[in-house]
Design a protein that fits this description.
Length: about 150
């Protein structure tokens, strides 16, 4: 049993190294974006691309979008991209927004350290257009610059 656990840990570490290398070579954002959508969908979160859902909110859902790429200080080759996960819940179900935020954080936790939370969270507010409560969680990933 002990050997199996060590072998399993080594396997996960090897997958992390391969994945991290692929993220760096590919530029990072496309691969991680797909992983984020897959992880959220596997956790039972309804997830959409920006502009895909534009009607009134009837059930909680999340929208994943990239919000910019920035270089690290003194580096012209390596930087980071910010990824925002906007969460929406119907106006008459405010508690569903906190539940959705918790599910999003739990679903994306296994993607660390490639995907790291920045600690920035949007203020809970009301989106009149979608008639929904809204909040956002921000994450960052390393990204190779041109």
């Amino acid at each position: 049993m002990k050997i199996y656990i060590q072998r399993e840990a080594l396997h996960h570490y090897s997958l992390f190294i391969i994945r991290y290398y692929l993220l760096f070579i590919s530029g990072g954002v496309v691969l991680v974006y797909k992983d984020i959508r897959t992880a959220l969908a596997a956790a039972g979160v309804a997830v959409y691309d920006p502009g895909q859902k534009i009607d009134v909110c009837t059930a909680p859902y999340a929208v994943v979008q990239e919000s910019g790429t920035y270089p690290y200080a003194e580096s012209h080759r390596l930087g980071y991209a910010l990824i925002e996960v906007h969460c929406y819940a119907p106006l008459n179900h405010y508690a569903a927004l906190d539940e959705l935020l918790g599910r999003v954080r739990a679903a994306l936790a296994p993607l660390a350290p490639a995907l790291r939370p920045t600690g920035n969270e949007g203020v809970h507010g009301i989106n009149e257009k979608f008639r929904a409560h809204e909040a956002a969680v921000e994450y960052m990933i390393q990204k190779r610059l041109l």
